[in-house]
Amino acid sequence: MKNRVQPTQVERRMREDDFIVSKTDLKGRITYGNRIFMEFSGYTENELLGAQHNIIRHPDMPRGVFRLLWDTISAGQECFAYVKNMAKDGSFYWVFAHVTPSYNPSGQIEGYYSVRRAPRREALRQIEEIYAQMRQVEQQAGPKDAPAASLAFLNDLLAQHRTDYHRFILTLEMP
After folding, report:
1. CB-based contact 65:134 (threshold 8 Å)
2. At 174, is the pLDDT very low, low, confident or very high (cuts 50, 70, 90)?
3. Is the pTM value of this prediction over 0.85?
4. How far apart (Å, rounded) are the C-alpha atoms in residues 42 and 51?
């Protein structure tokens, strides 16, 4: 299902005690979503189940962030990220996502589990600036090279600040 929703400037903010939970298969198709996921996304359970998780992808999100996320979780590691999602009505909501692989009894990755909560508003100012720079790099690189180019930009930026992605993200979430 191709997402044809037009983004609006309407922001919905997660409440402090909200947790959006979803599970996907190896290809990113949604196999579970909790009621908070349905509330914020605006989609029904029937619309979500079996759909690609990118049904809620906001066009403001750099493709390089998703390259980093998929590279990390497919390697069996957890990943934290700030993500701007788009609801069915075009509104948006920011989340602080924690995505981990799910394993079958044989120890093979069988899917992914994500818990998202409200991000620190102070962190979003920095993230929005970085994401805007990443999108600019992606536009210059062209569609084929966009994810790799913006991820390289992000890694170079973090190296200049003598940190790595994991440390940077967790530092932003600390009060």
Report:
1. yes
2. confident
3. yes
4. 14
